Structures are given as structure tokens and as C-alpha cells.
Amino acid sequence: MAVMIGSNPIVAWCQSDAFEGLLTEKVELGEWTADEALCIRNHIENTGWPVIPAEAGAIVGLRSETISALATHPVWVALCSDIPGESHRNPVRFRGEWIAGHVMDLLLDSTDVPWSHSWRIKKQGHWALRLDRMMGTSKIEHCSGYAVFKRPSGRTQHVVGDHVLRWGLGLAAWNASAYDGLGEPSAVVPVTQWLQPAWTSSQGDIRKGWAMGYQGKAWRFSSSLSCAGRVWRKNSAGDVVYGSQAWLAAKRDTSWMTTRECRYAGLLKRKFFWGNAGFSGEWGTFVHADSLKKGHGWIGSQAEGSWRTSRWASEIMFHGEGGAMKVAWLHSSGPHRDWYATIESRRGNHPKIHWGEPVTGTGVEGVVGFNWDKVSPKRMHFSWRLEARAPAWRNEEWDVYFQCKGRVKVGAASHFEFRYRVRAESDQGLWVNGRKRWTLRWKRDGETVNHRVQWERLPDQMHDGKAGNSLAWMGVVQVKNIRFKCAVAGWVMPEGAISYSAEPSLHGVKTAVMSGAGSRLSWYVSIPLGSDWEFQCAGHRLDRLDRIENSSGSFSTKGPVQTAWDFRLKVSM
Q: d(Cα 502, Cα 508) in Å, to the nearest integer?
């Protein structure tokens, strides 16, 4: 996505990457929920960049404090096409990218250097195409894309190709988003994303085929007919094992099997004065150990609404092996005080387990939490969250997780945050010593330079004198149209423990995993090349002090030292 400012779209490209980094950072810090970030992203994908800052209020699914923060944020304002006193900005309809990745392995021969390539073109709101070539290969291994067709009235939308459905509380139909797994959610009532075209890699489960969405005054309908390919093979025990390999690559590899799993899903909802309610269902085939394909499906009901200062949502579904139920509640007890809770019960394996999605089987889960924000005279935030999971209601094996978090704005541009987390397990009524984690963060935003520092400590859990510590710093420098980021991190973790830190990437900010003992240096630079082109480069150097082999993303090295590069060239027309 890109926007042209006058005759120079590169300025907007810099803002585009900054905006994507803003969404990731807000979710990671817990200021916005993952669903709010997804709502913002989908709004831009479907309608284009904002026209005026107040357009933030038109994005469905945002809380009032999120709307206020987004409408006044400098990055959002810079993307608007109609700002008093500035020249009018016209949207760019075509965007092309070439992305190359390179990893250096000191133990490899110079003639066997792994590279990856990705070619991507998109016409905003109409179609997209992506071709990927993985590292160490010479042929295209993955192809994805979509075409969007809309009625002039805007009520009906058709998508041919890759697409995503996110329904209700995600109990029955839910696909992963770009922000899942970042930080902790500050709300528990996700917003339904009826239909969204997707531009995906070979990783994960994605729907491929035809989808349709209709929105009327009182009724809303969406459906999907997917014939996505599945890569699989049987292990020594005869069980089916799903693979993450790309479809085209698996077709050339005789050790993997490929098949199409066709399934149809539909959702019908009606709006009432108190909220909305409806029914959903899905039927499909999946690879199974007993036969190549076996039919399975589910049917369910969803409802959500509001009453005074409370918002609630519920979902129930039934399938061949059992069923599941989930209820969520959010209550505002004051201008800036929110209570929330969820309870979920599952029985039997959800059909999506057979479709390769990480959905747990039988069990119960409860969540309760509290958020408090004080706007003046200083911006302060405090929250706590308690989660409990068990295989059944009357069971002595419980997994309990607790977190409390505080954040305060110091001065005009600095934020300080602390976070305390503990996880404990109960086995036959005996509680195991909780695994604790302390995190301190400091962030400062300036006109040209931004800083972020994070220190995390894992106390000695086993009383063997092995505690964990990690320290990370990231800085961002903006000089005219050139943007530079740098991150440095060092850590020593006990066996089996991990820590996380943010580092720059071609797509804004990503989360890096720190385990064992080591250090990491990451960098990113964006350079305009004239009025229509932009060059970006990102990379990292990872040193494992414990001399263990490195593994990062889709590649690994044979030794403890790893250096990787990513390059991207953009064009806008």
C-alpha cells in the first residue's frame, strides 16, 4: 500500500512502514488489542488510506480511547490525503515489490550460498499476486494472490483466491492474523472480520477458492468455498503428519503427499435492537489416517450485544466428537476502568485439528482481568489478568497464569512500563513453584530520534543459581526521507527458558526470540531512489555464546554465528 504526496510517493512509503511498525508496537505494549490493529489494517486495505484524521472514528471495532489515540497520532495524520494547509494527495493504485533474502553460513562453501526471492504486485483494492522462491532452490515454490469484485452499491463483495474468515469469538472459524501472539490482549470481545482477501506465504492454514460477503440493513451473510491444498505424509505409526512445505515444492518431493481439502463455510446474522445473532457452519474433507479424505463438519450459533455500559458475546458449536462453548463479557465501571472475563469449555477434538490448526481438545479455560487508564494530569495505565486452564472442571491439574502491568508517561515524549508475570501448575493438588518474569521498558520519541530499552529478568526457578537476564535497545533515526533503525540485544537464559525483544525488519518491527546465551545486532535502512522507487535493506548478526547451532525463521546455520540479509525494491505507479 502506498500513497503519493504530490509527485513523491516515497514519503508515504516511509510513513507506510512507520504505520505498520506503529500497529505492531501498540499491540506488543498492550495499548491496543490485536483485533483493533487488524480492524485498522483491514479498513485501509478495503477503503485505502485515510482522507482526514477523523476517519479513525469510522473504523468498526475500535474502543473510544483507541480512536482518540489513532486520530491524533502523527503517523496516522501524515497518511491522510486532505489536511488543511497541505497539497492534496492522490492514491497510488499499483504497487510492486522484489524481496530477496540471504543467509551467510561460515561452514558452507562460497558456491552454495542460500538465497530466497519473492515477487509481489498489487493493485489496491482489486487484485494481488505473490510468487516465492525459497532458500537454496531455483524454482518457484509458492504462489498466492486474489482478485476482488465489488458491486457498485458496495454491499456485496466477491473474492477469488486467498482469503480469511474471522467469525465471532473464534471458537469455530478463526484464522491467524499478523498480530496474534503479540503481548497480552486488553479486551476479550473480538470483532468479527467477515471477509478479507489475503496475501500469504506458504506457512499456516489459509482458505483458497471463492468467498462472498453481503451486508444489508438488518442482515449480513458471508460464505467461503475453499479447496486449499494440504501437504502431508504418514509417520512410522501410520498417523498423518502435516507439513509446512510450499505446495509446488511438495509436488516435486516424492516424500510428501499433496491433496485438496474442499470445505464450505457460511455465516448468517441478523441485527436486533440489542445486538445481533446468527448461525454458522462448515462441512469439509480432510486427510485422515483411515482414508485419504473423510467428511467432517460443525454447526454453531453466535450472538453479541450491549446493555448499558456492558458488552457481551457468546458462541456455541457442535461437531462429531463433541462441542464447545465460549462466553465473553466486558464492563466499564467508569470513564477509564474496564473489567472483562471469558469462560470456555471444550469437549472432543475440534475438526480444525485435522485441518492442521493448533486448536486444543477437551478442556476448560477462564480469564478475568481489569484495565485502568488515567488521562490527566499524566497518562497512566494499570492492568492485571488472570488465566486458568484444566483438562476438565473437576481436575487437580491446573495451569494458572497471572500478569500485572503498569505504564506511565513521563514528560511529553517518554513512557516507562513495568510488567510482572508468573505461571504455576498444579499436579494432584500440589502446586509447582511458579515461573516468574519481570520486565522493565523505557521508550522516548523525538522529532528525529527514537529510543527503546527493555530489561527482563527471570528469577532462579530451580534454586540452582541459574537466573535469566536479557537487555535490548533499539533506536530509530529519521533524516528527511531516509530512515535508519538499529537494535542491540544480549541475554543469558536458563535451559528451556526464552525471552523476546523487538527488532527492525522490512515490515516494520518483528519479535526476536532469545534462548540460551548470545548477542544480536540488527539493522534496517530505507533509501528513496528518485520519485517512484525505494530501496530497503535489513539484516542481523547473531552470535550464540553457548556454541549451539543457530536457527531463525526458515533457515538455519551449522555453527554458532549467523549473518542474514533481506533486501526489498519497491515501485509505485
A: 10
65 vs 73: CA distance, rounded Å? 12
Tell which wins on pLDDT, 461 or 337: 337
Q: What are phi and psi of 242, to 5 degrees?
A: -85, 145
Total number of residues shown for the chain: 573
Identify each DSSP E strand in 170-256 by its residue range. 193-197, 207-215, 219-234, 240-242
321 or 489, which is more confident: 489
Q: How many CB atoms lie within 10 A of CB 348?
A: 15
Q: CA-to-CA distance for 113 and 94, rounded, in angstroms?
A: 33
d(CA 361, CA 437): 28
Q: Which of 212, 219, 206, 179 is nearest to 40 (CA)?
A: 179
Alpha helices in 236-318 (DSSP H): 247-251
d(CA 365, CA 134): 39
Gap between the Cα atoms of 210 and 195, Å rounded: 11
What span, in angstroms and rounded, lies between the C-alpha atoms of 61 and 58? 9
In order of 59, 68, 480, the CA distances from 71 in angstroms are 11, 5, 24
| Separation of alpha carbons 514 and 511, rounded Å | 10
C-alpha cell at 278: 446468527
Whether 550 shows a pLDDT value over 80: the answer reads no
- Count Cβ atoms below 10 Å from residue 496 Cβ, excluding itself: 9
- Render pLDDT for 37-86 as a digit per residue (tens, 0 to 9): 877 877 776 666 788 888 888 887 787 778 888 988 877 887 776 555 55
CB 61 within 8 A of CB 191: yes
Q: Which helix (H) or strand (E) holds 290?
A: none
Say yes or no to pLDDT of 395 above 80: no
Neighbours of 504 (CB within 10 A): 26
Alpha-carbon span 216 to 167, nearest angstrom:
18
Single pTM value for the model = 0.78
Distance CA 564, CA 555 (A): 10
The answer to whether the beta carbons of residues 364 and 397 sit under 8 Å apart is no
Beta bridge partners, 293, equal: none
- Is the link from the previous residue into 377 a cis peptide, with omega within 30 of 0? yes
Rounded to whole angstroms, how far apart are CA atoms 256 and 240? 11
pLDDT tens sequence across 78-110: 777 655 555 444 555 667 888 888 776 554 444
Local structure of 380: helix, strand or coil: strand
Question: Cα–Cα distance between 287 and 276 in angstroms, integer?
Answer: 35
Range 113-124 average pLDDT:
80
- Dihedral sign, CA of 49, 54, 60, 61? positive
Q: In whole angstroms, give the CA distance from residue 151 to residue 174.
A: 26
Write down the residue that cell numbers 556454541 correspond to.
Answer: 547
Q: Which of 371, 374, 364 is nearest to 330 (CA)?
A: 371
Chain position carrying cell 494472490 = 145
